[in-house]
Amino acid sequence: MISRSISALFFLALSATVFADPTEIRYLSGTDKDHTVDWQFNVSGGRNSGRWTTIPVPSNWEMQGFGSYHYWSDWEGTPAPDREGLYRHTFSVPTNWRGKSIEIIFGGAMTDTEVRINGAPAGPVHRGGFYEFRYDIGEHLNYGEDNLLEVKVTRFSADDSINLAERRADFWMFSGIYRPVWLEARPTQHIRRAALDAGHTGDFHSQVFLGGIDNADSVRARITTLDGKRIGRPFSVKISPGQKQVSMETQVEDILPWSAEKPHRYKAVFELRDRNKTLHQVEEIFGFRTVEVRPRDGLYINGRKVRLKGANRHSFWPDSGRTTSPEISRRDVELIKEMNMNAVRVGHSPPDRHFLEMTDELGLYVIDELTGWQDAYSTEAGRPLVQELIVRDHNHPSVIIWANGNEGGWNTELDGDFSHWDIQHRPVIHPWELFGGINTAHYESYNCCTGSLFGGGEVFMPTEFLHGLYDGGAAAGLDDWWKRMLQNPLSAGGFIWALVDEGVVRDDRDGAIDTAGNSAPDGILGPYREKEGSFFAIREIWSPVYFPQSEQSHLPTSFDGVLEVANRYDFTNLRELDFRWALIDFPGPAQTAANHKAGHKIAARGRADAPDIAPGRSGTLQLELPEDWRSRDALALTARDHTGRDIYTWTWMIIPPAAMAGRMVKTDSEGTVTAEETQTQIRLGTGDLQLSIDKSTGRLAGVSRGGKKLSLSNGPRLVSGDGKLSNIELRQEAGAQVVSAQYQGEGEMRRIEWRLHPGSWLQLTYAYQMPGQVETDYLGVTFDYPEEKVTGVRWLGRGPYRVWKNRLKGVTFDIWHKNYNDTVTGQSWEYPEFKGFHRDLYWAQLETRELPITLVATAENTFLRLFTPKEAKDPMQTSVEFPAGDISLLTGIAPIGTKFHPPEAHGPQGGPNRVRKLGQWYQGEIFLYFGTFPE
């Protein structure tokens, strides 16, 4: 009898919970850019204006063929004609909603929004384009019948401070209802929302906000896993009629804290109850996480000091503007994490709801920002927007910091509003200044600011640095910054500007992508998330696993399979990772050309036991390699995290370039080499190959094979310096014909020697001397070759992306191939770029419309220069002056700057190449083969 009573009570309680009246949601629009609903629409000016038609909602009207496109800088000079958009939509609600609390919610509309239901105002005009807002509309509805929704969206606000904060800001100025619109229906007595504060120790506190309370007597809560398993005991609190909010707290044992490395999440279930009946139930996904700024110490998550490694991101897609989708949000978070970043700043406005859901799920720390760009909201305009920002985003564990505006666009009178609405009392910052215990200074130089940043006593975390205009900034300079940040205990990391090039697809320009000149091509990624070279360099520099040996390209002869390794994680032991190695052999250019492919062969592979190394500690990783490992060409090592995601793959060459050249180049072939002199040239030949050397310069003057001319000429000549020929002679030596040229003059070219072997290999050696302690961007030699005759290149070296002196990382050894392109980074997006500097050349085969040209290097640390990249529009400090010539073999290359600073402002790697030894000599050797290799 007792057990039957218990069972009956359990059934009644379960039934009451199951049949609780939930919040009902009904979308009036679509949910994202890929799922829309057509509404009636009329825009006041610009394209397709002055007539009623339809528009998909959500969307920005500019991206749907209406109105006009505007970037921030032209909003005053040429006022937008499309200042107003009118929307109409008919919808119905069920009769059983009568008597419920019903709200209409707008996820976001730009900028002033007036809403009417069946002709009646839903409430005051909402001002502010980046925020979710709502109206209680139950009294205006016709239940079981059609209802008319009318919305007027004004592009500019009637509040000047909102225009200054949002409309005159450094981003595209979009318009319209760009996020979803939906209805929410709750029981008369209901839970409006719950604000959570869950610490990493298991302390749980919540503020539950109530509405319409009459006879409800309690609020009950429980914590569960995401799959519904209960954690800890339920807890409850009594309430009284008319009560508006209630505090609830508990302590939960054995929880797993949330962090960017391990984003464990839980669910809080709140029930509004009347004795044994549940009237209304809401659920909140959250994580147990603690945030703390310790002044003059650092930023702490869950009691551990962390450094944020992040990028700035706008909500943006090139053919839909600010209207995005969960798929885009997931892709962006995954790309950010693929770069081994752990943070994102949502400059300069609250993102889509689904973006924060992804940062919660996948693990990224977020700086969530009130809009403001060098101008701020007034206190009157800003107060409701701070409330809307925090009420919507409060419970996301990924949100660890609030930003009050940007670069002077903060109103200090609003600082207290953040802690008023946020029961977690997360830190508040003013990006660009020292506030809240963190110096967030923007775009300072590496050695700036006596008394602050690296030279100060305050925690520092630049929320914008290394401005990634075109191919400059982003990873260029990051290696120097990051090494210095790691050495400084006050560094809390930093955020690169920016994640993507914000190029808009213009239907009035035949689909061309417009980046507003140099205002918007700031990304590590292109508009459609095309990966620039900086993407991969950041991935290596910010890897949480660091091998000091990765600073070298080659394994030393003393290598015994042991690698030093540093754990740069905050919460993860390296024993949780998976390490896999592979020994690699590379075919030569003859084999790869015959197979028309790039790549390598795996000779052996295996796993290494993950070492027990705690966060912040160092140790060793032992690779159990086979005995013959030294006979292989290269070693590759991949680290994967506990989720199976690749962290990075490091590669080291085992065979040096000279040894590989000796394996490839055949100088002992049978045959004869001929030579003749004219008044101006020395001509060499073997088989159907003919060469000519200019007797006045000692440089290559012409090449032909099988009667086909090859246009490589005028080299080698120095990229920095010159040389006056003093003597040139021809001799025969060991079956080869040799042309030897000597030069006079200190600090110039000293010697060039051409040696044509039977079998058609041409061996070139050269030597030059620098005059003393000099600084130069370039060291090496160059040739001329017409760019229009090149179709592609296949090479063995670090690739596939080009490098700069201050962005050498992110490239790995392999045989790579790319077709010719004329990409201007950030203005066109065919990556990797063909032109530029390529690191650690072993060999390269240039594919041309004439004959293939194969170059085989014998010296380590040789850069191959392929032509001169086209300069971007208004490059500011990212302009790089390339040396003369087209095909160059270099020992020293140039760095690249950022938008605001020349390269030397961002660390030692950004400086010129310094030759310190008086009269230092440089020597080089290269083998050349013209034409297709014999079968």
From TrEMBL:
Residues 219-289 form the Glycoside hydrolase family 2 immunoglobulin-like beta-sandwich domain. The keyword Phosphoprotein does not apply. Keywords: Glycosidase, Hydrolase, Signal. The keyword Cytoplasm does not apply. GO terms for molecular function: beta-galactosidase activity; carbohydrate binding. GO terms for biological process: lactose catabolic process. It comes from the Bacteria. Transmembrane segments: none annotated. It catalyses: Hydrolysis of terminal non-reducing beta-D-galactose residues in beta-D-galactosides. GO terms for cellular component: beta-galactosidase complex. InterPro entries: B-gal_small/dom_5 (IPR004199), Bact_Beta-galactosidase (IPR050347), Beta-gal/glucu_dom_sf (IPR036156), Gal_mutarotase_sf_dom (IPR011013), Galactose-bd-like_sf (IPR008979), GH (IPR017853), GH-type_carb-bd (IPR014718), Glyco_hydro_2 (IPR006101). Residues 297-413 form the Glycoside hydrolase family 2 catalytic domain. Residues 563-628 form the Beta-galactosidase domain. Its EC number is 3.2.1.23. Residues 53-187 form the Glycosyl hydrolases family 2 sugar binding domain. Residues 744-850 form the Beta galactosidase small chain/ domain. Residues 1-20 form the signal peptide. PANTHER family: BETA-GALACTOSIDASE. Belongs to the glycosyl hydrolase 2 family. This is beta-galactosidase. It comes from Microbulbifer rhizosphaerae.
